[in-house]
UniProtKB/TrEMBL annotation:
Gene3D superfamilies: 2.40.50.100, Nucleic acid-binding proteins, P-loop containing nucleotide triphosphate hydrolases. InterPro entries: AAA+_ATPase, ABC_transporter-like_ATP-bd, ABC_transporter-like_CS, ABC_transpr_MalK/UgpC-like, Mo/tungstate-bd_C_term_dom, NA-bd_OB-fold, P-loop_NTPase, Transp-assoc_OB_typ2. The keyword ATP-binding applies. Residues 4-235 form the ABC transporter domain. This is Multiple sugar transport system ATP-binding protein.
Length: 352
């Protein structure tokens, strides 16, 4: 086990694309760390540079105390699971799992023993003699994981390992992965474009955009207090409300309402007001944002109600089914204490 230190790391492809851009990152020993961001933001490149499969153009990567920037991949003590699993189709499950040991010229008996032990812990014992083509997606995913953990790597790198599974299996595999990581305690970097997956699994999350980190924090921090409007937009299963506002006579004017401002700002300051639909409740007689109910979408346990406010802006809030208002009725949405966030109109950065 080991921590990972990335310093001023840039990875530039021969075609000039700067996929990782002067990035600093420290991942603690035993941590389950998620790299989250939209497609093309550089997650895979960062992971591959940590693994040594891409060369760093500038900066350094250390694993534990060792600077591995120029160390070849096979000597870094990292294990990687790729998005498409990359299993060998002509080998059995047992041979696939034992492959890294075979490459390291371990004795045959030892290969079989490790394959069996790992397969047991990943519920694959019945499948050792099958070939990948005879397995379901979820089983293939577990074989890929087994192959990665069969060697005692210091670091486990997972590139969207759940993205090829259907929704239900994905949830199961997610829980399974969390348990496995807790058991073996290996420092894990998990790449995903799925914010829910990152929030559910990770000790800490780095939200990436264009080769850089926009925010780094615990799931609670990143969800509860996104550092800028990019992160605010990206995190959350319902989109955060981001509505133009301004400070007038010491109050926050937003969507036709006047609310106490959560931040002390001078009059005429232009802001973007952020509030999650989950942190708004319907109430009468309280200070809130009034609007006409325009649509209601069923989300399962709750419904997403969209209000059209006097100034034309739209405000989403979630309610339990039994509290659904009538379409066309006028209602007031009240923000939960401390949940209103303000962002700079120009910078998009959170105002503290
Ligand atoms: P992500 O995993 O977040 O989707 P990638 O790391 O795959 O992002 O890609 C980051 C950027 O680098 C993208 O603009 C992508 O087009 C580019 N890129 C990825 N791989 C290569 C490559 N082998 N050669 C040139 N450009 C690449
Ligand atoms: Mg990728």
């Amino acid at each position: 086990m080991a921590r990972i230190t990335v310093e001023n790391l840039s990875t530039v492809y021969p075609n000039g694309v700067r996929a990782v851009d002067a990035l600093d990152l420290e991942i603690a020993d035993g941590e389950f760390f998620a790299l989250l961001g939209p497609s093309g933001c550089g997650k895979t490149t960062l992971l591959r540079t940590i693994a040594g499969l891409e060369a760093a153009t500038e900066g350094s990567v250390s694993i534990g105390e060792r600077d591995v920037t120029t160390v070849e991949p096979g000597k870094r003590k990292v294990a990687m699971v790729f998005q498409d699993y990359a299993l060998f189709p002509h080998m059995t499950v047992s041979e696939n799992i034992a492959y890294p040991l075979r490459v390291r010229r371990q004795p045959k008996a030892r290969q079989r023993e490790v394959a069996e032990r790992t397969a047991r812990s990943l519920s694959l014992a019945e499948l050792l003699d099958r070939r990948p083509g005879q397995l379901s997606g979820g089983q293939q995913q577990r074989v890929a994981l087994a192959r990665a953990v069969a060697i005692d790597a210091d670091v486990l790198l997972l590139d969207e390992p759940l993205s090829n599974l259907d929704a239900r299996l994905r949830l199961e595999a997610r829980t399974f992965l969390k348990r496995l990581q807790q058991e073996i305690g290996v420092t894990t970097v998990f790449v995903t474009h799925d914010q829910a997956e990152a929030l559910a699994l990770a000790d800490r999350i780095a939200v990436m955009e264009s080769g850089r980190i926009r925010q780094l924090g615990s799931p609670r921090e990143v969800f509860g207090r996104p550092a800028d409007t990019f992160v605010a937009n990206f995190i959350g299963s319902t989109p955060m409300n981001l509505i133009d506002g301004a400070i007038e006579n010491g109050l926050l004017a937003v969507a036709g309402a006047k609310l106490p401002s959560p931040v002390d700002l001078s009059d005429d300051s232009k802001v973007i007001v952020g509030i999650r639909p989950e942190y708004l409740t319907l109430a009468t007689g309280a200070a809130g944002i009034t609007g006409i109910v325009s649509t209601i979408e069923n989300l399962g346990v709750s419904s997403l109600v969209t209000l059209e406010c006097p100034d034309g802006s739209l405000l989403g809030l979630t309610v339990r089914e039994q509290h659904e208002p009538a379409i066309g009725s006028t209602v007031t949405a009240v923000p939960e204490q401390g949940r209103l966030l303000l962002y700079g109109k120009e910078s998009g950065m959170i105002l503290t």
